[in-house]
Amino acid sequence: MISKYLKPLDEVDAAREDHLNFVADLEKRGFSVTAGRQDPPLGGVILLDVDTEAEARELIAQDPYVQRGLASYTATGWQPTRGALAGYQRVRN
After folding, report:
1. Single pTM value for the model
2. Which Pfam families does the entry link to (predicted)?
């Protein structure tokens, strides 16, 4: 999921702790492979391990950034075939 901030960065940053807690919960549950803010900070990327775009959208709808109208996400499917994530195996807790 690739996000785009819809509000000024100071408004986004006011909700950042809640957003990071949300991402930490995704990690704990085995849904987030990695995540981070874009540079420059226009949005972010969350690499989700899900089976469908619908599942990704259902999860991301719970993001405080989305719920507060601070960011929107675009789903982009991807299969790692090379590099550090080649052969990635799903881990669910």
Report:
1. 0.91
2. YCII (PF03795)
Q: Check: CB of residue 40 under 8 Å from CB of residue 68.
A: no
Structure tokens at 8: 């000024």
Q: 19 or 87, which is more confident?
A: 19
CA 17 from chain center: how many Å?
Answer: 14
Domain 2-74 fold is Alpha-Beta Plaits (3.30.70)
CA dist., res. 89 & res. 40, Å (int): 31
The DSSP secondary structure of 38-83, one letter per residue, reads: -SSSS-EEEEE--S-HHHHHHHHTT-HHHHTTSEEEE-------SG
CA distance 60 to 72: 9
Using DSSP's 3-state secondary structure scheme, residue 32 falls into: strand
